[in-house]
Design goal:
This protein is of the alpha+beta class and about 625 residues long. The protein has 17 helices and 26 strands. The strands form seven sheets. Strands 1, 2, 3, 4, 11 and 12 form a six-stranded mixed beta sheet that branches. The protein has a four-stranded mixed beta sheet with strand order 15-14-13-18, with helices on both faces. The structure holds adenosine monophosphate.
Length: about 625
């Protein structure tokens, strides 16, 4: 049986754990220097890629090529994150609307950055065991959607790890405390890390965890504690050392490097104050040194509003789950910031019971991931098996391709949402075909259901926004809903995906997916190329109709010739020929497209302003 490791891929820190065969207990693995936490920071330097502590040291020197908090960007579209980019010193750019990070000489994607972290942990485990490790259980927040989970899997693949299971972080934390052994109960997992706060309310029944509700704040955590302390210190330095700063020519607030050092000193002081009542912060600045005594009570006064801010989402999650605080049986603390005594006090007051904090709050998720890994590797047979979808679920899209919404092995209950559109102008009925299986083409998968979304307003192809939602409940019942967002028209259907499938069927379907993988990918690429050709044809024909007055006779002849060539090859088997004809088509229509855009811009903005805009871009 090959070994499976458990990995907590965190926003601030990441770590790896395994279950010790002798004791049956999960344990974290430390690096050569005895450190368990690997800061989730990757620095791309001219001499190579640095990870963890080594990368952290580059935060000050290389702010634009040292990437942290990459978890926030996993599986996100540019639109999802553009409001927060100003908070990061590195540059985020959209590549096909997917978030990428621009370095000095290239761009990298979030999964590539996460893969550097995963590879480091994989190597750490390999050194510990003296053997190659190829499989891992990786945890993600309970609210992660399908594309964020997929991005996490991709990161694993890039790192040479088969992510055999993605587990929700609160479920992992509960597993670490053995709460799966509750016959029945409700667990609240309060997770306050560096940059994010999550509260999850889980129901455990016979070893199966069901997420009843999640809530939180994606911009609240220990980093915010650090920020308020830093600002407070900044004011203190400026008022006490005004003359020194002026003499040394230091403009504190604008000096990136000094501010970074001040932030690190503030964080260190905060950490000391979790165990000590008082501490002293020392920071050399120019020709003088800044000293400041801080009492825990002072820190608590500064951060109390932030701690209070976590309680709103807790109450909301409880309300969503239809529960009162007293109906929660167990409270689990996760995340480095739950070491802050004030945080523990506030949580205890709210629930009226002492939270579980015996395990290290930084390690508890990784320990739980290790427990899950051990179960999957067959080490624990008497214990639970979290329910999972045995096969991928998706819908058929244009050309008979399957678009997977929920990947095989996803823990249920789960949901996923994706946007689709129409492929034909004026389409008012959309046929939805729900499929199960691992193959790329609909005809090779199992058909689960078909239903129609009717009453879509006639619009040009590609305009309607059809949101398809898959929802699998704890009993494995799949609900599929399709909704056209412009008109609000909706339709839905319910199916039992595994109905009538034996273990052997599932195994065969998975095996087939490997056997046919190569051929499937080729067919898929052919269909996608054809689809693209089809889209181009539709657009060009529409442009020739709508922009007739903008086309000269010989240009029209050229375009029509390219159109004829493309139509002649589009249904053939030669992908290169279709691609070339599509490219040629795009080339000859480029001037027309530009003229049409200018015309549209002019009519939208008035001629004078359009001339300015067009003029200024030249
Ligand atoms: P995590 O994202 O769970 O790794 O948590 C990291 C956050 O926990 C950072 O903001 C740390 O400053 C904070 N943290 C770690 N240890 C302590 C401690 N002893 N007291 C207070 N905060 C801590």
């Amino acid at each position: 049986m090959s070994r499976i490791i458990g990995i907590d891929l965190g926003t601030t820190n990441s770590l790896v754990a395994y279950v010790d065969e002798k004791t049956g207990l999960p344990r974290v693995i430390s690096d050569e220097d005895g450190r368990v936490l690997l800061p989730s920071i990757v620095s791309f330097t001219p001499d190579g890629v640095l990870v963890g502590e080594a990368a952290r040291r580059q935060l000050v020197r290389r702010p634009t090529s040292t990437v942290y908090s990459v978890k926030r960007f996993m599986g996100q579209g540019y639109g999802d994150v553009k409001d927060e980019l100003k908070f990061f010193p590195f540059t985020i750019v959209p590549v096909d609307n997917v978030v990428s990070i621009r370095l000095d000489d290239r761009t990298v994607t979030p999964p590539e950055v996460s893969a550097v972290i995963l590879r480091t942990l994989k190597e750490r485990a390999e050194r510990h065991f003296g053997e190659t490790i190829e499989k891992a259980v990786v945890t993600v927040p309970a609210y992660f959607n399908d594309s964020q989970r997929q991005a996490t899997r991709d990161a694993g693949r890039i790192a040479g790890l088969d992510v055999v299971r993605i587990v929700n972080e609160p479920t992992a934390a509960s597993l670490a405390y053995g709460l799966d052994r509750l016959k029945e109960g409700v667990v609240a997992v309060y997770d306050l890390g560096g940059g994010t706060f999550d509260i999850s309310i889980l129901r455990v029944q016979d070893g199966i965890f069901e997420v009843l509700a999640t809530n939180g704040d994606t911009h609240l955590g220990g980093d915010d504690f650090d920020r308020v302390i830093t600002l407070w210190l900044l004011e203190d330095i400026q008022s006490r050392h005004c003359a020194d700063l002026e003499r040394d020519g230091i403009d504190l607030a604008r000096d990136h490097e000094v501010m970074q050092e001040l932030r690190l000193a503030a964080e260190a002081a905060k950490i000391r104050l979790s165990s000590a009542e008082r501490t002293t912060l020392t920071l050399p600045l120019g020709s003088f040194t800044y000293h400041r005594d801080i009492a825990r009570a002072e820190l608590e006064r500064l951060i109390d509003p932030l701690v209070g801010k976590t309680l709103g989402p807790v109450r909301m999650a409880l309300a969503d789950a239809g529960l009162r605080p007293s109906q929660v049986d167990e409270v689990v603390m996760v995340g480095g910031s739950t070491r802050v005594p004030l945080v523990r006090r506030r949580v205890q007051e709210l629930f009226g019971k002492t939270p579980h904090s015996q395990l290290n709050p930084d390690e508890v998720v990784a320990l739980g991931a290790a427990v899950q890994a051990h179960i999957l590797a067959g080490g624990i047979t008497s214990m639970l098996l979290l329910d999972v979808t045995p096969l991928s679920l998706g819908i058929e899209t244009f050309g008979g391709i399957v678009s997977v919404l929920i990947a095989r092995n996803t823990t249920v209950p789960t949901s996923a949402r994706e946007m689709f559109t129409t492929s034909v102008d004026g389409q008012t009925v959309v046929d939805l075909h729900v499929l199960q299986g691992e193959r790329e083409l609909a005809k090779d998968c199992r058909s689960l259901a078909r239903f129609e979304l009717r009453g879509v307003d006639p619009m040009p192809a590609g305009m309607p926004k059809i949101e398809v939602t898959f929802l699998i409940d704890a009993n494995g019942i799949l609900q599929v809903q399709a909704k056209e967002l412009r008109t609000g028209k909706a339709a839905s259907i319910e199916v039992k995906p595994t109905y009538g499938l034996s273990e052997a069927d599932v195994e065969r379907m998975v095996e087939d997916s490997f056997t046919y993988a190569e051929a499937d990918v080729e067919t898929r690429m052919l269909i996608e190329t054809r689809n693209e050709a089809e889209t181009v044809i539709t657009h060009v024909e529409r442009a020739l109709r709508q922009g007739a007055q903008l086309v000269e006779a010989d240009e029209r002849a050229q375009i029509e010739a390219a159109l004829a060539t493309l139509k002649a090859v589009r249904d053939g088997q030669d992908r290169d020929a279709i691609r070339e004809a599509t490219t040629a088509m795009n080339r000859v229509t480029e001037p027309l497209a530009e003229r049409m855009m200018d015309a549209a811009l002019k009519s939208a903005l008035g001629t004078r302003r359009a001339a300015e805009i067009i003029g200024s871009s030249e």
